[in-house]
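Backbone-to-sequence.
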């Protein structure tokens, strides 16, 4: 973050404090999130949003908020506010400062009393909030009112007679479970007593959902409130979780956990901490809040989240959980086991790229083939021979995928049953990934001395490369077509052609690579990533706003995606060499400002195509963070990076040519 702390003028301006969010996530998959004003503006906000034992794999909002009130000299001072139907909220006047490092902290001022509130979660997803009376000479009375939802994160709840509002007393608190199938939520405090006062609070609104065209009004149930004394210099702690806590040691435990959280200073340190939020329960969570585990996103993110963070051991643990889901050569697009959907033409090819990154990092080429060779062979064979969704190799050895009503690439938005960006046929990045996958498999098979595989596939790279150039390259336009269907070529300038340059094995000549990068740099590059369509295109949409249909139409029609910068960096360093470093460093360093713009200390999913490139979409996205980590690593490590060209001969010999990266002359 640029700012260590936000003070009263900003905190009391809801245009600022109600549009910046914080996120605290646990390895268990639970999270706490809201705006830094303390007011929930999304249905996904809540203090305990956790997985439950339902088949959908979603998180559930259990504890929506904790409404705090200070009573001092017989005057009541609410420390909270909500948006209600027909009412314009006022910012909390007692909130004088907020800081997000190393954990969310709020400072409140009531006359000569200063109260500090701090929030954290342990690895199991137990929430702890500590209140400290920092300054003042008179004890204060603190009331904490839990507001319960017990609902799927995508839905809203309303007052009903089905909810089980029975309060179960436990040591220092209560346990509640509004509906069958949920875990019981235990809420406890170190001090004071719980006062029952069950009540439904009606018509609480979430303005961000209203902006997005969704239902935005719900009712929340409160069973009562915790009432306690907060003496000068003393602390009280509130906890919420699925196990009864020992409140006699909770203060010490809070301090111990607080001391284990390192304060980030540099952009890299912020990204490293943000990366931890996306690995939960052995899988990669694609983004917060509404994305679960997606195959494509996981494979693209995995090198950045594990290899670039020094957690190499996690790579194979997570990779192996995904390879068990492969069916007919395809990795699921989203979902898991019985709920898996396989409507993707590139997820399997990105899985091969991820393994390639691991092999190059660990020099384990032979070991990779021994462990994953059969999986890799089956995937390539499925693409060659044909699999689901019309994915198959054509006579020219390029991959065809999809039909007119499917969207199998990462540009997958569909409106009213039709793809917004139709790309059925031969998509440029699918075939760049295909070429890279075949070359990589030949390389590791050669190291493992698997002559059967190399005999079968050795002729493919040269033929694919030739067909690739014939199908996609234009000597006149000097860039690659985005998609080819029969005799029709889509010459929209999109970033998908980038991968024909950035991937370790490229089917293009050096001059073609330079021309492609020059086109991308001229038409698509911004300070926040690459546009998905050139602004000169009549279909370009400058801003990602409005209801779901409007947003889906803009999703890949100009919207900027930061995850593409990892591959842009790789490609530019290949074509321009060290001369590109200052330019790339400036883009990378510019993301320091993005840490303050949307959800603090992390990177959003997307940004508007036009300046000022406002952050949009998911507030924190795995591949945004992962690929920026890879970008930083590429920049810092680029002194001399040889490129490996592998040629398979009929004699089953491999020639390795080590060359310096090309530079413009």
């Amino acid at each position: 973050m640029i700012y260590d702390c936000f003070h009263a003028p900003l905190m009391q301006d809801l245009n600022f404090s109600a549009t910046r969010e914080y996120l605290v996530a646990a390895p268990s998959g639970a999270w706490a999130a809201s705006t830094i004003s303390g007011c929930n503006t999304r249905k996904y906000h809540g203090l305990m949003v956790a997985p439950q034992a339902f088949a959908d794999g979603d998180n559930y909002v259990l504890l929506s908020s904790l409404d705090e009130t200070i009573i001092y000299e017989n005057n009541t001072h609410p420390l909270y506010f909500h948006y209600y139907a027909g009412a314009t909220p006022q910012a909390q006047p007692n909130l004088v400062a907020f800081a997000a490092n190393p954990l969310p902290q709020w400072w409140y001022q009531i006359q000569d009393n200063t109260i500090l509130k701090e929030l954290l979660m342990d690895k199991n997803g137990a929430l702890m909030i500590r209140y400290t009376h920092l300054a003042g000479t008179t004890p204060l009375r603190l009331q904490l009112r839990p507001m319960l939802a017990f609902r799927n994160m995508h839905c809203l709840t309303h007052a009903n007679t089905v909810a089980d509002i029975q309060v179960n007393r436990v040591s220092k608190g209560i346990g509640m479970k509004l509906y069958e199938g949920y875990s019981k939520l235990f809420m406890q405090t170190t001090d004071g007593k719980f006062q029952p006062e069950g009540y439904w609070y009606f018509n609480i609104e979430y303005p961000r959902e209203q902006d997005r065209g969704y239902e935005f009004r719900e009712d929340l149930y409160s069973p009562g409130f915790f009432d306690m004394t907060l003496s000068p210099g003393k602390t009280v702690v509130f906890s919420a979780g699925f196990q009864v806590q020992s409140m006699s040691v909770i203060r010490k435990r809070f301090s111990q956990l607080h001391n284990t959280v390192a304060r980030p200073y540099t952009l890299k340190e912020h990204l490293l901490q943000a990366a931890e939020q996306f690995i939960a329960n052995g899988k990669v969570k694609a983004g917060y809040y509404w994305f679960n585990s997606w195959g494509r996103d996981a494979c693209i993110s995995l090198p950045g989240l594990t290899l670039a963070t020094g957690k190499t051991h996690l790579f194979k643990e997570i990779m192996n959980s995904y390879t068990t889901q492969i069916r007919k050569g395809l990795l699921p697009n989203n979902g898991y086991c019985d709920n898996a959907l396989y409507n993707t033409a590139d997820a399997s090819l990105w899985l091969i790229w991820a393994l390639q990154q691991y092999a190059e990092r660990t020099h384990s080429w032979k070991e990779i083939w021994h462990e994953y060779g059969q999986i890799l062979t089956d995937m390539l064979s499925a693409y060659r021979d044909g699999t689901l969704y019309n994915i198959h190799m054509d006579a020219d050895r390029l991959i065809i995928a999809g039909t007119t009503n499917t969207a199998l690439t990462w540009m997958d938005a569909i409106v009213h049953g039709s793809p917004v960006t139709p790309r059925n046929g031969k998509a440029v990045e699918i075939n760049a990934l295909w070429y890279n996958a075949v070359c990589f498999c030949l390389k590791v098979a050669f190291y493992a001395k698997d002559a059967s595989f190399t005999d079968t596939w050795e002729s493919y790279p040269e033929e694919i490369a030739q067909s690739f150039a014939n199908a996609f390259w234009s000597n006149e336009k000097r860039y690659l077509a985005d998609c080819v269907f029969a005799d029709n070529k889509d010459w929209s300038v999109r970033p998908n052609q980038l991968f024909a340059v950035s991937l370790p094995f490229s089917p293009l000549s050096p001059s073609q690579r330079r021309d492609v990068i020059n086109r991308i740099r001229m038409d698509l590059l911004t300070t926040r990533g690459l546009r998905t369509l050139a602004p000169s295109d009549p279909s370009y949409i400058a801003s990602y706003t409005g209801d779901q249909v409007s947003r889906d139409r803009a999703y890949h029609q100009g919207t900027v995606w930061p995850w593409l910068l990892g591959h842009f960096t790789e490609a530019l360093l290949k074509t321009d060499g060290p001369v590109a470093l200052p330019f790339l460093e400036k883009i990378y360093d510019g993301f320091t400002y993005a840490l303050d713009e949307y959800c603090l200390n992390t990177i959003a999913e997307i940004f508007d195509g036009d300046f000022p490139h406002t952050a949009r979409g998911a507030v924190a996205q795995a591949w945004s963070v992962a690929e920026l980590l890879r970008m930083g690593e590429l920049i810092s490590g680029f002194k001399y990076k040889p490129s490996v060209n592998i040629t398979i001969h009929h004699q089953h010999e491999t020639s390795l040519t080590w060359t310096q990266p090309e530079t413009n002359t």
